[in-house]
Amino acid sequence: MFKKNLVIIGSGPAAFTSAIYAARANLTPLVFEGFMTGPVGGQLTTTTDVENFPGFPDGIIGPQLMDNMRAQAIKFGSEMITEDVLSVNLSNHPFEVQSNKNQVFTNSIIIATGANAKRLDIDGSRDGEFWQKGVTACAICDGASPIFRNKDLYVIGGGDSAVEEAVFLTKYANKVYIVHRRDELRASKIMVSRALNHPKIEILWNKVIAKIEGDNVVNSVIVEDVNTKKIEKRQAGGVFFAIGHKPNTDFLENQVNVNNNGYIITLPNRTYTNVEGVFAAGDVQDYIYKQAITAAGSGCMAALDAERWLSEKGFLN
To answer: Which residues are catalytic?
Structure first.
């Protein structure tokens, strides 16, 4: 049991960026970077080439980018604990953070635990199969990759996100197919119209992808009609899940305000939550952009907000 001025929970771009800024401000932050709940470094550790993070004109491997961020945070004085946070108690101050082996009391907390893309359990889509080898959950992140260019691409989903991703992919694809298990989309009317009228988008109504096949990368999908059960093998260069994300907030046990989809609510253009001294950064509070660079930016904001709050409260005197 020990006490800190700042605890950071998470290990993606938001967490490590906040750790870098907080450490350079001599806050000596303690970072719980997880272990069992997901890879240290967040979702970028499951990607290959990252080509849209500024400063790397030739791209950089996702795990390497996160290793660099982590090393930079440690260089300036951040302390890493490779354990999951099991619970927090925000009803009393200092706050209590309980991990697998440690109990920590802290004056402030930055929550940067991210969000996991929802994926269907389709044969061929799992880790160790074609995940990140033609199967992904972020068109904006991965759609420009050479493996998807001039190919037939498939987007699974029926909401606004699915249509947005499909439209984005038309910049690179030969054709984009939206696969939806019902006979109408859940997307807004304007988005439905956009999909129906786009010359490079076709909607496969009442269909599901039953299997994803390939060699080193995806090259075909098995599409099944949910009514007739008829199956058809189709050429495919990639499959994109667009069925939403789940923010990693279960450990908070509703002690921080969240929206209807579970994302932490912060003040406009700030990282303050409804609990004084608790801040949120990255995909755990961002349901719009969900990019590594925006997560890193909000991590910077959270560290600056936390430093100012700690100073105003007299904890840094």
So the answer is: 138, 141-142
245 to each of 213, 223, 263, 302, how far by Cα in Å? 25, 24, 10, 22
Q: Are residues 147 and 36 in the same domain?
A: no
Q: Which of 189, 216, 241 is the C-terminal boundary of a domain? A: 241
Cβ count within 10 A of residue 164 = 19
d(CA 57, CA 82): 31
CA distances from 196 to 159, 167, 202, 209, 231 (A): 13, 11, 7, 20, 24
Domain final position from 211, 241, 271 = 241
Residues 233 and 292 in one domain: no
Looking from the CA of 15 toward its CB, the CA atoms found within 13 Å total 33
Q: In terms of domains, do 95 and 39 share one?
A: yes
Does some domain include residue 181?
Answer: yes
Per-residue pLDDT of the chain (317 residues; tens, 9 = 90+): 679 999 999 999 999 999 999 999 999 999 999 855 555 556 665 566 788 899 999 989 888 999 999 999 999 999 999 999 999 999 999 999 999 899 999 999 999 999 988 899 999 999 899 998 999 998 888 888 899 999 999 999 999 989 999 999 999 999 999 999 999 999 999 999 999 999 999 999 999 999 999 999 999 999 999 999 999 999 999 999 999 889 999 999 999 999 999 999 999 999 999 999 999 999 999 988 888 999 999 999 999 999 999 999 999 97
Measured CA to CA, the distance from residue 264 to residue 270 in angstroms comes to 12
Token digits for 34? 């997880």
What is the value of pTM for the model shown?
A: 0.81
Which DSSP letter does residue 93 get? S
